[in-house]
Amino acid sequence: MNDSRSPRPSMLLVGASRGIGLAMAEELLERGWDLVGTVRGGGRTGLHELAGSYPERLAIEPVDVTRAEQLSALRERLAQRRFDALFVNAGTANPRPDDTMADIETEEFVRVMVTNALGPMRCLEMLDGLVRPAGLVGVMSSGQGSVANNQQGGRELYRASKAALNMLMRSYAARQTGSGRSLLVLAPGWIRTELGGPDATFTLEQTIPDIVDCLLAKRERPGLEYLDRNGKVVPW
Ligand SMILES: NC(=O)c1ccc[n+]([C@@H]2O[C@H](COP(=O)([O-])OP(=O)(O)OC[C@H]3O[C@@H](n4cnc5c(N)ncnc54)[C@H](OP(=O)(O)O)[C@@H]3O)[C@@H](O)[C@H]2O)c1
C-alpha cells in the first residue's frame, strides 16, 4: 500500500465519502496520487467502491472531524506515514439556509460551527505533523466565507462557519511564517451535490479538474492563499 517507499505523491483527504471529496479522490487517483481517504461511521460509501479499482493506492480510514478522540486515534494509526498533502474537505450546511439567527436553534448553530470550523482546524492542528515540511495543508472553505464579498446576506450560519474557518486558517498561517508549507483555503464554486442542491450552477464533472488543478498548483507557492478553483484570489 501507499507508504513512504512509494514513488507516487500522497494525500490524506478528510471527508471523501461522497460529493466533492469523493470526486476529488477519483481525480487524484487518476492523476497518479496515492490516497488515504476518510469516511464517517462503518457504512459502505462511494469511496469503498472506488477502492475496489485502486486496491494498492487507496486506503480508507474512519474519522468524524467533530470527535477529537477519533482524530487522535487516526494520528496514531498513521504515525509512520508521511504525506505530501493534507486536505480537509468535510463540511455541512443547515437545512433551512434562509434562517436568520432569530430562527436557528442553538444546537444547530453549534453543529454547523463545530463541523465547519472547529473540526477542520482540529484536523490540521492534530494531523499536520504527518505532512512533509514543504507539503500542502488545506481546507475546503466557500466563497460564502468571504466577509468582504458578503453584500447580500442569506445562508448566514453557513457563511459564518466558513468565515470562522478562514479566520482560524489565518491564525494558523500567522504562527508559521517562514515555513515551507503551502496553505490553501479553497472556494470551489456552487456545485450540484447533496450540500450544493439541485439548483447549483455547476456539476462535479465541470469543476473537479479545476479544483484539483488549483490544489496541486498551490504546492509551488508556500504561504496562505484563499483561492477559487481557477486559482483567482478571493477577498477575505
Ligand atoms: N457543493 C457546493 O456548492 C459547495 C460550495 C462551496 C463549498 N463547499 C464545501 O465543499 C465541501 C464538500 O461539500 P459537498 O458539496 O461535497 O457536500 P456533501 O455532498 O454534503 O458531502 C459532505 C462531505 O463531508 C463529510 N462530512 C460531513 N460532516 C462530517 C464530519 N463531522 N466528519 C467527517 N466528515 C464529514 C460527509 O461525510 P458523510 O458521508 O459521512 O456525511 C461528506 O463526505 C464542504 O466543506 C462544503 O462546505 C461545497
Strand residue content: 15-25%
CATH topology: Rossmann fold
Shape: globular
Name the helix and strand elements from N-terminus to C-terminus, one letter apiece: EHEHEHEHEHEHE
Q: Radius of gyration over alpha carbons?
A: 17 Å
> How large is the count of helical segments?
6
Q: What is the count of distinct domains?
A: 1
The computed structural class is alpha/beta
| CATH-defined superfamily | NAD(P)-binding Rossmann-like Domain
Q: What is the highest CATH level, the class? A: Alpha Beta
Cross-sheet strand order for the largest sheet: 3-2-1-4-5-6-7
Q: Residue-averaged pLDDT, rounded?
A: 96
N-to-C span: 39 Å
The profile of the biggest β sheet is:
7 strands, parallel
The molecules bound to the chains, other than polymers, are:
NADP nicotinamide-adenine-dinucleotide phosphate
Which segments are poorly predicted (pLDDT under 50) over 5 or more consecutive residues? Answer: none
Describe, in short, the structure shown.
The chain has six helices and seven strands, in the order βαβαβαβαβαβαβ. It has helices at about 20-30, 45-55, 70-75, 105-125, 155-175, 205-220; strands at about 10-15, 35-40, 60, 85-90, 130-140, 180-185, 225-230. Helix 4 (about 105-125) links the parallel strand 4 and strand 5 (about 130-140).
